[in-house]
Hints:
Layout: H1 11-24, H2 28-44, H3 48-64, H4 68-75, H5 84-90, H6 98-113, H7 116-133, H8 136-152, H9 156-173, H10 176-192, H11 196-212, H12 219-232, H13 236-253, H14 259-272, H15 276-292, H16 296-312, H17 316-329, H18 337-351
Helix pairs in contact: 1-2, 2-3, 3-4, 3-6, 4-6, 6-7, 6-8, 7-8, 8-9, 8-10, 9-10, 10-11, 10-12, 11-12, 12-13, 12-14, 13-14, 14-15, 14-16, 15-16, 16-17, 16-18, 17-18
Amino acid sequence: MAEQLDRADLFVPLLYGLWGFHYIRGESKLALSAAEQMEALGEARSDDLVLMLGHVYHAIIRYCLAEFAPSVALLNKCHDLSKPSHREACAGLTAEDPYVMALSWLAIALTTLGYVDQGRERIAEAISTAHQLKQPYSRGFALVFACGVAWATGAALDEKQYADELIALSMEHNFFYLLSFGRFHRGFALTALGQPQEGLDAMAQALSMFKAIGAVCCTPWIFVVQADAYAKLDQPQDAFTCLANAAQTIGSTDERFIEPELHRIRGELLTRAGDTVAAEQNYHLALAEAQKKSSKLYELRAATNLARLWNDQGKRAEARDLLVPIYGWFTEGFDTPVLKEAKTLLDQLSSK
């Protein structure tokens, strides 16, 4: 209808609505098409704002498809979204400030690539910007990603702190969607901090909230994180079920950013079950997926697991040779639990 009426001014909100609808439903390719149409519209009209918005929505789908470096490249083009004139123009279009959104996705993408400190800097900027703007929803949006960065780096205490803040904010303003993320992150943090039952209950409640609104996006990640929690609590059957659900959802949505962790956690479960041959195969799959996706963080996590397995089998030299170059790639984030765990293992391998 907009085309028939020659109403180009309506295309942006229509494309944004179309993108959001497909993104939430986990329909990555359809969402990508809407984002690319927005970019084309911005170029055709020489409209920098529309082009940058298209870049943000395009970058989000690239991240979901596990194309992390292209996602960062697109998001780095969007700094001018912080201009007051651009914020004004977007006020009636998006629930969250577009610059806060870009910073938040940039934070998790940089962290996934292995640039941990840069990721933490971007998320701190996103939270600070939302606070300055006095926009509760933008602040809640940024807190979701602060939780995500903390989860990715193994910082359970930080994850719980951000989740508690997110839950309080969401309940105050009735942000149902953000509340589900807050409860899920808090649940996983609690399992990691030694409160298993409370944590699992919170995660189950969050998943039911997702299902209630028909959300499919992020559910592969949710299932994998649930599996990780069950694995930590020595409930392998529940963990394997979650991983199967994750694999099935990845197949139907193409949302592949969590694939390396799926294989790594399956490897952990098989290691505990004594099936070291299958465990090693899954660690190698995790490494291959992480390398294919250029995710140094996930590569380090998988390498740490495989190196520990080899060390237990007396393959000290092989374990060290695997872990040294991957850990040596990092130039930041050394205070995070993920890098500390790898460093501790390396020290052990070098001292024997």
